[in-house]
Amino acid sequence: MAKTIAEINKKIKKGEAVVVTAEEIIDIVEEKGVKKASQEVDVVTTATFGPMCSSGAYFNIGHSKPRIKLEKVYLNEVPAYTGFAAVDILIGATSLPEDDPRNRVHPGDFAYGGGHLIEDLVAGKDIKLVATSYGTDCYPRKNLETWINIKDLNEAVLFNPRNAYQNYPVAVNLSDKVIYTYMGTLQPKLGNANYSSAGQLSPLFNDPYYKTIGIGTRIFLGGGIGYLVWQGTQHNPGVARTKGGIPRSSAGTIAVMGDLKKMSPEWLRGTSLRGYGASLTVGIGIPIPILNEETLQYTAVKDKEIYTQIVDYNKTYPEGGSESLGEVNYAQLKSGKITFQGKEVPTASLSSYAKARKIAAILKDWIKKGEFLLTEAVKLLPSADSGVTFKPLKERPIR
Amino acid sequence: MAKQRLVLTFPHKVVEEPITYHLIKDYDLVVNILRAKISPQEEGRLMIEIEGEKNALNKGIGYLKRLGVRTQPLAQDIRWLETRCTHCTLCVPLCPTGAILVDRDKMEVSFDKDKCIACGACIPVCPYKAIEILF
Fold first, then answer.
1. Interface pTM, i.e. ipTM
2. Per the CB < 8 Å rule, is B86 touching A352?
3. pLDDT of B63-92, one tens digit each?
4. Nearest residue in A to B92, CA atom
5. Do B127 and A272 make contact, defined as CB atoms within 8 angstroms?
6. For A50-109, what is each residue's pLDDT tens digit?
């Protein structure tokens, strides 16, 4: 018997909803079968916690007296974007102070960037704002130097254009020198293999065709409540899939936003990737309403059924390619080593499975307590048959 | 047999003293140098593992103290900041002694101070600065 989200919400309000995590559902389905489990379970919680570079925040600092139309703004030396009206500021996770040495002495440390700034802001620390402008009749001021604090901001919103990638390649290095990538430090000659996904707990693996997830879906975001607002940039649902519908390489992505003031530095962490740059590690949890046997079947996916591609980050990736050297599943990756090209290669993850598990448990708790209701998506994400693809840049040289 | 991992700090006046020679010859100790440096102020730091009969080990450490060499257990100089660690596992394959362990069921990281030789391989790869070595 099919359920509706309204019916599930009624049960949540009464404290009667059966909520389990995407890990727990695996055993339940094995024990009871899909049909019985789909009747008993109302919600499955999924989660991920990993570096997500396409993240940022915008906020409004209020007007100074006299007024200034912010033009160049630095927050703890990190440059922010001000091309919106007078005192709205946008800061991206990968933004770097102008005097950061970058990779001038390779590999750079990238100790502080936009992601760290967002963590500090959320932690309630005072942030140093230094701004200049050109002055107008209505906004005469040309300089502003002040401490700001999140509690005084008018709106502070986390806004992430691309998060929670549905699958990601495993990065290796076939060359004979160490390389420093956003997938971590890669030792020469297949010295290690780095991956980044929560696998069976990851949101979009549990609803692979986006049958419940869409615009308006309420989620756990950075320790607070957020919403899915659009498909993420580079959303690419049409890639090859397994029989069970799981994409075999990077596919769907989501754009999310939420009230930064209600979030926590535990779930938004400034991130330094040696030789690459700064980023923000974001915690996301998405509830999947169990509407029928099909939606439940998808949530029962296991690590060993989720495959991804091994890609050489020394040559293939930098040159714009994505050719696979081979395929592995997340059960193999999580074991700590894979056997590849006749060699035992140690594996490491960028995303934290332990933290993803904790987020799935927190979200489960919120729903069980009746504090978090599910939403009906206003519009589902473009799915495998939508024709939406992620195209490379077609360069047209300017002469 | 007893084993200790120590960080030795040498004042300027004993920097040129051949202490490893004396520990080996006079006290019959097995000495393994893990790391050594002399700072710009010419204060020497030596990270060593010494192994031998308990009595001999104590006498050897007594000899160091008489010379004016400060000794402290290595473990005090390494800090795993558990609240900063996200348990991502990025550092794990780089640890040469298996001091960073992963519980593969929970996918949680733990740190065994006694196995750590303070090589520092984990430090630059940690995106969250969760490990500190004061040496």
1. 0.95
2. yes
3. 999 999 998 888 777 899 999 999 999 999
4. A348
5. yes
6. 999 999 999 999 999 999 999 999 999 999 999 999 999 999 999 999 999 999 999 999
User: Options 3.30.70.20, 3.50.50.60, 3.40.640.10, 3.40.47.10; which CATH number does B81-133 get?
Assistant: 3.30.70.20
Would you list which residues of chain B are within 8 Å, Cβ to Cβ, of chain A?
86-94, 102, 104, 106-109, 124-125, 127-129
Query: Which residues, 6 or more positions from A113, have their beta carbon under 8 angstroms from its beta carbon?
Result: A78, A93, A94, A95, A96, A97, A100, A270, A272, A277, A278, A279
Q: Using CB atoms, which residue from A187, A352, A357 is nearest to B88? A: A352
- Alpha-carbon distances of A147 from A92, A126, A212, rounded to whole Å: 19, 6, 43
Chain B environment of A350 (Cβ under 8 Å): 88, 90, 127
Q: What residue segments make up the domains of chain B, in order of their start?
A: 2-76, 81-133
Active site residue A53: no
| Residue A337 identity | K
Same topology, domains B2-76 and B81-133? Answer is yes
Q: What is the pLDDT of residues A235-248, one digit of tens each?
A: 999 999 999 999 99
- pLDDT at residue A1 above 70? no
The catalytic residue among A85, A138, A354, A393 is: A138
B114 versus A379: the higher-pLDDT residue is: A379
What is the CATH topology of the domain spanning B2-76? Answer: Alpha-Beta Plaits (3.30.70)
Residue-level pLDDT at B135? 63
